[in-house]
Design a protein that fits this description.
By secondary structure, this protein is mostly helical. The chain is built from 5 helices and no strands. Helix 2 packs across helix 5 and helix 4 runs antiparallel to helix 5. Keywords: Membrane, Transmembrane, Transmembrane helix.
Length: 135
């Protein structure tokens, strides 16, 4: 059902993906002369956000939900790669780049929530399989 714990994790991952758009790392990526970096970051996080919200409503078909969350996690890793690339192009993590590092941390936290959601979806699937064996 929708009130399962993995729904909370997927919703938190979506909220974190949305909050990255309001951090300085996104502004720096969009101000980059090579515009494909900013577009890649924005599109990968947006598509991961959409897939997370879509997969919340796939609670009846857990195998399909697992597949979609894995796809969203792959896009999240791609977005993390763009964030790390922008962060290192700014000069690495220094005392003046903590705001940009915070944006990258939000992407990492979103990825962790997706992994936790995958773990709990798999636990539900195993529970259903064990109940089918008992019947």
């Amino acid at each position: 059902m929708i009130q399962r714990l993995q729904t909370v994790f997927l919703a938190l991952a979506s909220i974190l993906n949305l909050s990255v758009y309001f951090t300085p790392i996104y502004e720096k990526a969009m101000n980059d002369p090579q515009l494909w970096i900013g577009i890649g970051l924005a599109s990968s996080l947006l598509v991961a956000l959409i897939i997370n919200v879509f997969s919340i409503f796939l609670y009846n078909n857990r195998k399909n939900q697992i597949a979609w969350v894995k796809r969203a996690a792959l896009l999240q890793v791609i977005g993390l790669g763009f964030c790390v690339g922008v962060l290192f192009s700014l000069g690495g993590i220094g005392t003046y780049l903590w705001d940009e590092a915070l944006g990258t941390g939000l992407v990492i936290a979103g990825l962790l929530f997706q992994i936790l959601a995958l773990r709990f979806i798999k636990k539900d699937e195993e529970l259903v399989r064990s109940m089918d064996r008992i019947r």
